[in-house]
Design a protein that fits this description.
six-stranded parallel β-sheet; Rossmann fold; alpha/beta; 3 domains; 586 residues
């Protein structure tokens, strides 16, 4: 087997292997050659070559999102690692484990105007769990001064002793830093950065390893709530007539069904689930905005909870945020091992254990249910909203909203549904999603920049069919995601092309002006077809409800290449239709 000659590269690769980091996403570069050589010549690793570093990092994020284990990205020095930053921020706020392995120049070449050289140490400091800045190996040929006044034998002997001691100290420090970074990414779920300086020559290889790094393990203690805290929480739970549970981004199948059933049986509990929560129960309330949007002041007061319990990641619905910030609960409990966001400005308890573990411990202590008409009242409201929702769609003209109605119903059971940000995720929130689907969206930073790349990474990492729904701007923004040799043939993309950023038409401002069209909506006449021709995707399109229905019937079937469906919707009516929809719910 080939190994890089540089001991530091060997150390990084061996410790990644020892920590079971198997997936390595590599962007081509020269300074990172020692890492690329080592990873790609070891059959343990699954290596991917992605040229565009921004796409590469989101691709890695998509893999990590699915396998729930760390994935490494490898890049050269200079601006390469800056292109990782959007995905690093997303991983930081979404608690997804990524390892950035950035090659760097030697210290003496930094800050002197050398090519492909920037200040790389701690470059992600505001959005990283740990930064390891490694030291360069000592090179024997550069360690001897050209002239010495002492006899040559004594000079060499002394220099070798100094050299060996210095290199051993550097090796020990580097091993400790790499171990710490990889232990953090494994046990805390988020991104870490390991910056690795290499000097030339970079491409030399050897047939056997010259270092055997120490592997440092971490003992993880299982968390529990103290008995006194449980008793206090249970007491408050009994006293509350109105308990509202709001679930944000949540991993599929992470909560046992029996706990969901118990919550549903409690008539003092209302459970609001977002599309990304991956939680389903007939008694729960999906499509939060359908409930919230038409409420008046008295109804808001009726919904105002005594206790708000949240778990999962960030919340999409602006309406639930506005409601709970105005009509604050008496107590807000957040459950989860990661950071607790005070989204509603009333956080009282952060219970630092996994939600399923909390319900296992907490609900076993809840011996009786509180008498209340809270759930019954809002269940009636939900039924009314459901009827008005159905009535609105009976004669609805072709539009974004109408297209989503048919697209969401068409997705095959047991698929993975990836959603882009902006209007796509918000439209999806208005519908009851097929409970067999697993739903994902980059809600850490809520950016449009890497949605397609993330969906591609997801499709590569999972044997289930992945369906990605996106808007036109999101898709074109991340079109380099298709420059990828690993996309499975069953991968499906649906692009809703309304010729611009239609969501901006809903916001206040002067519409239908040249200024608005150019700087906000960014009107365009682009089509996905040309990208399909370039990247080898099968292309189909729909411009009305009949062609959309016909196309969807065969769209998900097996094929010899991945497919893209481009749905052209009218540009100027979508905002008025959405406003009509919320008005009709009243």
């Amino acid at each position: 087997m080939k190994y890089p000659k540089i001991p530091l590269a060997q150390t990084v690769i061996q410790l990644c292997k020892a920590k079971h980091i198997k997936h390595i996403v590599i962007s081509p570069g020269s300074r990172s050659a020692p890492l690329t050589i080592g990873f790609t010549h070891d059959a343990y690793f699954s290596c991917y070559s992605i040229v565009d570093e921004r796409c590469a990092a989101f691709f890695a994020l998509g893999i990590a999102q699915q396998i729930q284990k760390p994935v490494a990205v490898v890049c050269s020095s200079g601006s390469a690692l800056l292109n990782y930053y959007p995905a690093i921020a997303e991983a930081f706020y979404s608690n997804i484990p990524l390892v950035v392995l950035s090659a760097d120049r030697p210290k003496h070449l930094i800050g002197i105007g050398d090519g492909q050289t920037i200040n790389q140490e701690n470059v992600y400091e505001n959005h990283i769990l740990y930064s390891a800045n490694l030291k360069q190996d000592v090179k024997a040929e550069n360690s001897f001064a050209p002239q010495e006044e002492v006899p040559i034998f004594k000079n060499i002997e002394t220099k070798i002793e100094k050299l060996l001691g210095l290199q051993q100290n550097i090796q020990t420090q580097n091993e400790a830093e790499i171990n710490k970074a990889l232990n953090v990414v494994t046990h805390k779920s988020g991104p870490v950065h390991i910056n690795i300086p290499f000097d030339e020559p970079l491409y030399e290889t050897i047939s056997s390893l010259t270092v055997n790094p120490k592997v440092e393990e971490v003992t993880v203690k299982s968390n529990k709530i103290e008995a006194l805290q449980v008793a206090d929480l249970v007491s408050n739970w009994y006293d509350a007539k109105k308990k509202l549970i709001v679930v944000g981004v949540n991993k599929p199948n992470s909560i046992e069904q029996k706990w969901l059933d118990e919550l549903a049986e409690d008539e003092s509990v209302v459970v609001f689930t977002e599309t990304t929560s991956n939680l389903h129960h007939p008694q729960f309330f999906s499509s939060i905005d359908k409930i919230i949007a038409p409420l008046d002041t008295e109804e808001f007061k009726a919904l105002q909870p005594d206790i708000l319990l949240t778990f999962g990641g960030l919340i999409v619905s602006k309406k639930i945020k506005a409601f709970l910030r105005t009509y604050k609960p008496k107590q807000h409990w957040h459950i989860g091992t990661e950071k607790a966001n005070d989204t509603f400005f009333c956080l009282e308890h952060h219970i630092k254990i996994a939600p399923n573990q909390f319900f296992t411990q907490f609900l076993q202590e809840v011996k009786h249910l509180t008498k209340s008409d809270y759930q019954k009242y809002w269940s009636h409201i939900k039924k009314v909203r459901k009827k008005k929702h159905a009535a609105f769609f009976e004669n609805l003209e072709f539009s974004d909203l109408k297209a989503f109605q048919f697209i969401l119903k068409s997705i095959p059971d047991n698929s993975i549904l990836q959603l882009s940000n902006s209007s796509t995720i918000r439209y999806a929130q208005l519908f009851n999603i097929n409970k067999t689907l697993e739903v994902f969206c980059n809600r850490g930073t809520s950016g449009i920049d890497g949605s397609t790349s993330t969906a591609v990474g997801c499709a590569v990492a999972n044997t289930k069919q992945t369906v990605f729904i996106t808007g036109d701007l999101s898709f074109f923004y991340d079109s380099n995601a298709l420059w990828n040799n690993y996309i499975p043939n069953d991968f499906r993309i649906i692009v809703i092309n309304n010729q611009g950023g239609g969501i901006f038409r809903i916001l206040p401002g002067d519409k239908n002006s040249e200024n608005f069209d150019t700087y906000f909506e960014t009107k365009h006449q682009l089509s996905v077809k040309h990208l399909c021709d370039m990247y080898g995707f099968e292309y189909v399109k729909a411009s009305n409800i009949d062609t959309l229905k016909d196309t969807l019937q065969s769209f998900y079937l097996a094929s010899d290449s991945p497919k893209i469906l481009e749905v052209f919707t009218p540009r100027t009516i979508n905002d008025t239709i959405l406003l009509r929809y919320f008005k009709a719910l009243k």
